[in-house]
Amino acid sequence: MRRPKKRAQAMIELAMLAPMIFMLLIFVFDLARAAATWAAISEAVREGSRTSVTIGQTTAATDYAIIGNTQAFGVNLSISPVTGCVHGHTAGMVTPPPAIGNTGYIYILSTVAGQPNAPSGGAGYAETVNAGCNAITAAGLGRYPLKVVIAYNYQPFTPFASQFMPGGITMIASSTMSTEF
Question: Which of 2, 17, 30, 38, by CA, is between 20 and 30 Å from 62?
Answer without folding.
Answer: 38
